[in-house]
């Protein structure tokens, strides 16, 4: 993955995201990961959390809280993460719903 989408972020955020991506790559080889929220918009603060969307069919069968707990354990504990997790079919529906929004947060693909 190029550091292009992470350019301009704090070193703390960048390191935390790269560590998470490396762990996700191992645990969920089919995963797509998108950055959203303030880090994707560019209006973040040093204490902003990392908002991510993780898409993987390997998450099927897990409840939303189980998905979050599994993925949160892959993220560094010293940085706040907000992780939304979907299967590919669920994410397709999310993208359809986003089309109705006037100004949805950007989704920047990282993985």
Architecture blueprint of SSEs:
Blueprint: H1 11-27, E1 32-36, H2 37-41, E2 50-55, H3 64-72, E3 81-86, H4 88-98, E4 108-109
Parallel strand pairs: 2-3
Antiparallel strand pairs: 1-2, 1-4
Question: Could you give a short description of this structure?
Answer:
The chain has 111 residues and is α+β, with helices and mostly antiparallel strands.
Word description of this protein:
This protein has 111 residues and is α+β, with helices and mostly antiparallel strands. Helices cover 38% and strands 17% of the residues. The chain is built from four helices and four strands, in the order H-E-H-E-H-E-H-E. The protein has helices at residues 11-27, 37-41, 64-72, 88-98, and strands spanning 32-36, 50-55, 81-86, 108-109. A four-stranded mixed beta sheet has the order 3-2-1-4. Strand 2, helix 3 and strand 3 form a beta-alpha-beta unit. The longest helix is centred in the N-terminal third of the chain and has 17 residues, at 11-27. The radius of gyration is 13 Å and the shape is globular. The protein starts with 10 loop residues before the first helix and ends with a strand. The model has no long low-confidence stretch (mean pLDDT 94).
């Amino acid at each position: 993955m190029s550091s292009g989408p992470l350019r301009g972020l704090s070193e703390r955020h960048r390191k935390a995201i790269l560590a998470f991506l490396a762990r996700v790559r191992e645990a969920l080889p089919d995963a797509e990961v998108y950055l959203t929220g303030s880090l994707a918009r560019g209006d973040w603060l040093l204490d902003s959390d990392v908002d991510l969307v993780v898409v993987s069919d390997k998450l099927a069968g897990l409840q939303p809280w189980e998905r979050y707990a599994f993925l949160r354990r892959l993220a560094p504990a010293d940085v706040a993460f907000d992780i939304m997790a979907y299967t590919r079919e669920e994410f397709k529906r999310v993208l359809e719903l986003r089309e109705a929004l006037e100004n949805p947060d950007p989704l920047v693909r990282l993985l």
